[in-house]
Amino acid sequence: MSKENMNTVPTAERLHIGFFGMMNAGKSSLVNAVTNQDLAIVSDVKGTTTDPVKKTMELLPLGPVVIIDTPGIDDAKGLGKLRVEKAKKELRNVDIAILVVDSTVGLQGADKEMIDSFERLGIKYIIAFNKADLINADFKASENEIYVSATTKKNINELKTLIGSLANAPKEERKIISDLVEKDDVVVLVTPIDSSAPKGRLILPQQQTIRDLLDNHAITMVCQVEELEKTLSSLKNKPRLVITDSQAFKKVAKIVPLDIPLTSFSIIFARYKGDLETVVKGAYELDNLQDGDTILIAEGCTHHRQCEDIGTVKLPRWILEYTNKKLNFEFTQGQDFPDDFSKYKMVIHCGACMLTQKQMTYRLNLAKANNIPMSNYGISIAHINGILKRSVEPFGL
Fold first, then answer.
1. Interval 169-207: pLDDT, tens
2. Is the peptide bond before 61 cis (omega within 30 degrees of 0)?
3. Distance between CA 80 and CA 46 in Å, rounded?
4. Which residues are paired to 219 by β-bridges?
5. Do both 119 and 21 map to the same domain?
6. What is the pLDDT of residue 224?
7. Are 235 and 354 contained in the same domain?
């Protein structure tokens, strides 16, 4: 893979590797040694790393990754407690955790607590005993433990190999939509270009869907809502599927004949990034809302919100019109997602194109643990417009 291609891999599709450990265990030094770059500030002063530091890069032989350097997990005084909380919150984002331990002192209580967290959350992890040059340690690696020296660079390549062995473990291959179409099938993508559309380009879910279809030799046709009827009539045979932007669901459903399968980008990403069946069930909670209930609307990215923003403007308006209830709405963006759900009746999430599958699964599980139903933009909009059953039929639901 070329350097240019590496740089264009979306963050949500990259392997996330987090470095954790106590203050002055050498986390930042080890990050710099592994990446062969000065990504993190190194100092003998405890608590130098005050916030998680993230860097997207190519790390051979692993490929495109996100490296995360976190604050010390034993900084429990004053602001340090908040830093520890920030470090532990990164557990919801990482695919592989590196616990950096000062080998001159060995595993401490805070280290053992982190190991418990890794195992409880099902996170693959490696214990890297740093500063091993100071104790003349035998630089040998076991299944998930290794002695290294960020100073002398001893066993750094071996650490990368160990990380790679975890990263390359067999896993289920996920497809955005191409597993449901055959070679030469025609798929029509409806992509409205309005005030909220980015200038000069398609949004990420649209780009990724097109690439997924092309990689599997399906034929893609892209149009706006106004050209959809003409596009369909120009085809010799019916398309295998029509995929629309969620906010155009109502108009598109009136145009697309009932014998042509119809769904949305938001729905296919709900399946790709999370649990489609769960968020479909969550949409029916819209029918049970009462005056005074509060809905959390969560965005996975931090885009600039327009005057007709789908999440903060259109969706709340459609929900109010549908339910005819006096409801409250709260909004979050990016990594800002609450742990306390006590005040919410339900959560409606975006398609999560900017989140990893792990991040979205964490959010779904958090809602389940709090007995709060979670739905998705496209699924909720489909339900509001009375076409939910139709829009999930392509997935066997």
1. 555 567 899 999 999 999 999 998 866 666 778 888 899
2. yes
3. 11
4. 186
5. yes
6. 95
7. no
d(CA 295, CA 327): 8
pLDDT in tens, 124-142: 999 999 999 898 766 666 6
For position 372, which CATH number holds? 3.40.50.11410
Place 315 in a pLDDT band, splitting at 50, 70 and 90: very high
Q: Does any domain span residue 397?
A: no
Q: How far apart are CA 317 and CA 98, in angstroms?
A: 45
pLDDT-based confidence at residue 361 (cuts at 50, 70, 90): confident
- Average the pLDDT over each of 157-166, 208-217, 381-390 and give the range with the smallest value: 157-166
| Mean pLDDT of the 48-60 span | 71
Nearest CA among 360, 385, 394 for reference residue 374: 360
Q: Is the pLDDT of residue 24 over 70?
A: yes
Cα end-to-end span (Å), the chain: 38
**294 and 253 assigned to the same domain:** no
The predicted pLDDT at position 353 comes to: 79
Give the domain extent around 378. Answer: 276-390
**Both tokens assigned to 208:** 């990724």
Q: What is the pLDDT of residue 56?
A: 81
34 and 123 fall within a common domain: yes
